[in-house]
Design the sequence.
């Protein structure tokens, strides 16, 4: 790979950008957090000074007009993902967009098409998928140590309900726990099983105190071979983010499936044939790895692990989950909805 660092521009001063993604860029050999934009110019300047970013802009348009910026990171509220992804693509920038990619599968398709038309790469920011432990977990499964998979259980919950002004609690802005954290167990099951669900059923608690968004949801995703994902997600519950893969002969337990940080926090456990062992995983920054993967695809032309088509498929499932929760019905995913799309740049 070239020694030239790709210059990144960040649209907005979101907490995830300041807390995780920008520090991850600072650790990268291949990427540089070069500019940040906010509709509040003073806020952009303060954030740039705080996080050692060279340029600050008082509008997103100014950042997109900067010819030195190679990649744009979009951590804006969900309802703005489509607009600014398309505008970034039209400006010739490669894009890392926060999850969920869009509000609907149709929006995700439009974003994928815009990136393809502009000849730029578009990646959805599920940082956990770039951590080496998921390859390690897949190797354990493929090696047969736990036998045939019988089911997956996972959860992602936290309690921020008192902060009623948070963007997560704006219905029209794409608020709600399924969009915000339920998407993690869904992507993890798809990743580990290697196929798409055939049906979904979700029950949710919609809170009128929080603009009617789903504050808690529990769901069942049915995959082929009579295997299912049981998941729950919430923004008004104690923090947890475990994942468990149950096999005929054993089980894989991941205590902190999506969040890492402290040494050893990425480790997981395998129980089989009466023994339980801890699998030690490298302590790495998954946000750095996420950025490095995209930069290598841009500079060296290596394939993305997860093309925009994957995000479209994930949004189809989220669409079905939300429909099931609102209508209290089981939603069957049509076969044509499960077929792979191809909006990637090769």
Sequence:
């Amino acid at each position: 790979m070239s020694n030239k660092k790709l210059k990144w521009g960040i649209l907005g001063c979101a907490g995830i950008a300041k807390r995780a993604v920008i520090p991850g860029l600072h650790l990268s050999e291949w990427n540089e957090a070069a500019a940040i934009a906010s509709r509040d110019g003073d806020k952009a300047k303060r954030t740039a000074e705080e996080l050692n970013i060279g340029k600050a802009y008082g509008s997103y348009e100014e950042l997109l007009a900067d010819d030195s910026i190679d990649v744009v990171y979009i951590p804006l509220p969900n309802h703005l993902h489509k607009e600014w992804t398309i505008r970034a693509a039209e400006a010739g920038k490669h894009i890392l967009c926060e999850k969920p990619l869009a509000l609907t599968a149709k929006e995700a398709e439009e974003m994928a098409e815009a990136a393809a038309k502009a000849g730029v790469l578009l990646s959805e920011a599920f940082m956990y998928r770039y951590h080496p432990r998921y390859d390690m977990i897949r190797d354990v499964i493929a090696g047969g140590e736990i036998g045939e998979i019988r089911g997956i259980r996972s959860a992602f919950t936290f309690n921020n309900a008192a902060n009623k002004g948070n963007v997560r609690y704006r219905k029209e802005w794409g608020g709600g726990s399924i969009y915000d954290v339920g998407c993690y167990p869904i992507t993890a099951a798809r990743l580990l099983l290697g196929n798409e669900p055939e049906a979904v059923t979700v029950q949710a608690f919609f809170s009128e105190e929080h603009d009617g968004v789903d504050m808690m949801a529990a769901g069942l995703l049915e995959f082929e071979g009579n295997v299912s994902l049981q998941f729950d997600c919430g923004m008004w519950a104690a923090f947890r983010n475990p994942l468990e893969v149950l096999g005929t002969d054993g089980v894989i337990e991941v205590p902190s499936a999506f969040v890492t940080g402290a040494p050893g926090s990425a480790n997981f456990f395998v129980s089989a044939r009466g023994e339980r062992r801890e699998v030690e995983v490298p302590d790495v920054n998954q946000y750095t790895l996420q950025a490095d993967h995209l930069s290598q695809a841009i500079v060296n032309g290596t394939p993305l692990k997860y093309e925009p088509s994957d995000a479209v498929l994930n949004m189809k499932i989220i669409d079905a989950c939300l429909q099931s929760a609102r209508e209290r019905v089981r939603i069957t995913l049509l076969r044509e909805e499960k077929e792979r799309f191809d909006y990637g740049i090769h």
In short: The CA atoms of residues 47 and 100 lie 25 Å apart.
